[in-house]
Amino acid sequence: MKNVFLATLALASSLTPATAQQVPDQVAQLRDAALDDEIAYAITEGLTTEVGPRLAGTEAEERARAWSLKTLTAMGFSNVRNEPFPLKTWVRGEESAEILAPFPQPLRLTALGNSGATPARGIEGEVAYFASYADLVEAKDGSLNGKIAFISHEMTSTQDGSQYGTYGIARRSGPGLAAQKGAVAILIRSIGTDYHRNPHTGGTNFPDGVAAIPAAALSIPDAEQLERIIQRGQPVRMKLTLTPRILGTRQSGNVIAEVPGTDPAAGIVLVACHLDSWDLATGAFDDAAGCGIVTAAAKRIMDAGKPRRTIRVLWAGAEEVGVFGGRAYFEAHKNERHVAAAESDFGADRVWRVDTSFAPEAKPVADRLKAALLPLGIAGGSAPARGGADVSAVIAAGTPGIDLQQDGTRYFDLHHTPDDTLDKIDPAQMQQNVAAWTAMLAVVANAPEEIGMRNAAN
Fold first, then answer.
1. In degrees to the nearest 10, what's the CA dihedral of 184, 190, 195, 196?
2. 402-406 and 351-356 as β-strands: parallel, antiparallel, unpaired?
3. 3-state SS, one letter per residue, for the chain
4. Cis before residue 276, ω within 30 degrees of 0?
5. Which of 104, 211, 239, 299 is 20 to 30 A from 380 in CA distance terms?
6. What pLDDT does residue 125 have?
7. Contact (CB, 8 A) for 66 and 79
8. Which CB contacts under 8 angstroms, 24+ apart, belong to 128-134?
């Protein structure tokens, strides 16, 4: 894979001499050297091995913060610190489901974050089937009294992961809506694209005044099995046991490190990932890899000499359960001058496109960035950058965003499942990510132009 990237470098240089000339030698050198990076993988390996799963608000996330502070300090970053914030902490318990009639058999499922609990002995109910979230919306209030709702759909893989927004509403809003319509529990087909018997967890929310009901995701094979049974035309009765608990208010926190710039007035370039993970696996793709990538790139800039602008690395806490770390960061730092923000939170497969939301006067910076990334096989996009979840508030307030779009073709095979483990990382593709982020920081953090603020409505 690395040879492919190097060949792309040579080809791009030979085919686009005018574009290649726009890239300063130091940027090109830093970019190309990063194709041999070992830092990102070492961080990912260390975090997933020495800490493991890191559910927000738990002792494991606390250990992850301690590990992060020690690691970032040892790497030579400045102003390494933890910025704590309170969090209502949810943990899972026992999880089981079985069809009682007409064809008795067990099913594989996992609770969604913030799910309510059944009694210890479980609950029983008839299944009310909905082919989509939209069908549940059309159900009459009270029509689900005493029933277990089941939402199906068929998400497919795409390079940009765009179907996640379309189908993810079944997880994010389905349980609250089913509760309002009288359901005693809800099952959804996992928001994913794999065919392993690994259910995908993820957070859900219940509207104010609506009591949480038991809510779980079925593995995709089990969801399809349940759908086939329903299609036989007989009433389907199930037993469901979920015993998650709310532990009360605990502490999470954001870990921050910096590469100080030579010109404090030039502003801050914020690069982010999230430190927490779901508890089913070690969170290698989501999002230890992102922390490895952005940190390796920042260290490479630091080791090359001081940049003009300060680079701030944010390892956000409690992203998975509601982007609490990103919100806490914004509230704590909203009066500081951020001039660009970006996040890596979509696995570790290669970057294929870059999007920006710079102000028009910063177009030369965007052009140089696109030129620096082209030899890595990264195309310049035209969509406005939205940023990852943890920098979304900063970008919404008007800070220019940068999206280094990763290939998401296999991301939702692994997302929020027991399969999100270190062996899924492709080291060569991770190195291409580091090269892209290194080039981005070399261009943006050192740009002589003012990047400025954009119109927040853009």
1. -70
2. antiparallel
3. CHHHHHHHHHHHHHHCHHHHHCCCHHHHHHHHHHHHCCHHHHHHHHHHHHCCCCCCCCHHHHHHHHHHHHHHHHCCCEEEEEEEEEEEEEECCCEEEEEEECCCEEECEEECECCCCCCCCCEEEEEEEECCHHHHHHCCCCCCCCCEEEECCCCCCCCCCCHHHHHHHHHHCHHHHHHHCCCCEEEEECCCCCCCCCCCCCECCCCCCCCCCCEEEECHHHHHHHHHHHHCCCCCEEEEEECCEEEEEEEEEEEEEEECCCCHHHCEEEEEEECCCCCCCCCHHHHHHHHHHHHHHHHHHHHCCCCCCEEEEEEECCCCCCCHHHHHHHHHHCCCCEEEEEECCCCCCCEEEEEECCCHHHHHHHHHHHHHHHHHCCEECCCCCCCCHHHHHHHHCCCCEEEEEECCCCHHHHCCCCCCCHHHCCHHHHHHHHHHHHHHHHHHCCCCCCCCCCCCCC
4. no
5. 299
6. 98
7. no
8. 128/183, 129/227, 129/230, 129/236, 132/170, 133/169, 133/170, 133/173, 133/174, 133/177
8 Å CB contact between 365 and 443: yes
- Is the four-CA dihedral 37, 42, 47, 52 of positive or negative sign? positive
Q: Which residues of the chain register pLDDT less than 50?
A: 1-21, 456-458
Q: Which residues contact 11 (CB under 8 A, 6 or more apart)?
A: none
Amino acid 3: pLDDT: 44
pTM greater than 0.90 (yes/no): yes
The one-letter amino acid code at 75 reads M
- Residue 455 has a pLDDT of 55
- Write the CA distances from 248 to 83, 201, 259, 325, 437, integer angstroms: 20, 21, 36, 18, 38
pLDDT of residue 2: 46
